[in-house]
């Protein structure tokens, strides 16, 4: 046995001995064994973020909004590329040493620079807006989980994460399989512990009240 292991075993033995000595002294003085510290029962609930996010109306509307915004950007992008191509087509019928060709070349350069700047800024704004809305929705889900937990008398809610393990294992290697198994946060729970639907109902009610015309 190495010195490190010997030290660990020695320390562990001393700790057990110390606890036994303290217990014996308390029992000798009072006639009763020392009771362990009293803690209230831990009431645990589980919630699936995937189930909640895909189930609430707000998330569905958010996805539709993202898709519509993406389509608008794609349409605008196609129109701008069409304009650039039109300039290039006009240049192709001009002589390279003509004044009109030089003007078109300058026009194409400016249009290309403007297009690149627009594309980068638009993508940045789209990504930033999408991330902010997703973060806000996550915060709303967290708040709703807390409300349901307090109402149901829960003092701990854990996330129910269970990545699906494919029936056909030929498409993944052993390491990927271990990662899928290791990513599972809940191995068993009875149905009464899952508060996901209660959270969905609470969020849908709040969302409908917020979006209803006044």
Tell me, briefly, the overall form: elongated
Helicity, as a percent range: over 70%
Major sheet size, sense and barrel closure? 2 strands, parallel
Q: What is the strand content?
A: under 5%
Strand numbers in spatial order across the main sheet? 1-2
DSSP summary: helix tally: 6
Structural class: mainly alpha
Total strand segments? 2
Q: Which blocks of ≥5 consecutive residues have pLDDT under 50? A: 1-34
Instruction: Please state the oligomeric state of the protein chains shown.
Output: single chain
Mean pLDDT: 83
Strand/helix succession? HEHHHEHH
Radius of gyration: 32 Å
End-to-end distance, in Å?
Answer: 76 Å
Number of domains: 2
Question: Can you describe this structure in just a few lines?
Answer:
The chain has 6 helices and 2 strands. With 214 residues, the chain is mainly alpha-helical.
């Amino acid at each position: 046995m190495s010195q490190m292991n010997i030290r660990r075993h020695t320390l562990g033995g001393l700790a057990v001995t110390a606890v036994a000595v303290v217990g014996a002294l308390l029992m000798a003085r009072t006639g009763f064994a020392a009771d362990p510290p009293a803690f209230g029962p831990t009431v645990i609930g589980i919630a699936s973020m995937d189930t909640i996010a895909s189930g609430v109306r707000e998330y569905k509307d958010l996805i539709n909004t993202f898709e519509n915004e993406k389509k608008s950007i794609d349409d605008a992008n196609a129109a701008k590329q069409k304009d650039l191509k039109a300039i290039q087509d006009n240049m192709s019928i001009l002589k390279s040493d003509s004044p009109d060709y030089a003007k078109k070349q300058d026009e194409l350069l400016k249009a290309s620079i403007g297009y690149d700047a627009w594309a980068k800024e638009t993508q940045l704004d789209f990504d930033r807006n999408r991330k902010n809305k997703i973060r806000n929705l996550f915060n709303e889900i967290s708040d709703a989980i807390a409300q349901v937990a307090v109402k149901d008398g829960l003092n701990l809610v854990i996330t129910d994460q269970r990545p699906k393990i494919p029936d056909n294992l030929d498409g993944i290697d052993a390491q990927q399989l271990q990662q899928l198994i290791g990513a599972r946060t809940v191995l068993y729970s009875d149905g009464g512990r899952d508060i996901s639907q209660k959270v969905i109902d609470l969020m849908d009610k709040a969302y409908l009240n917020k979006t209803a015309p006044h």
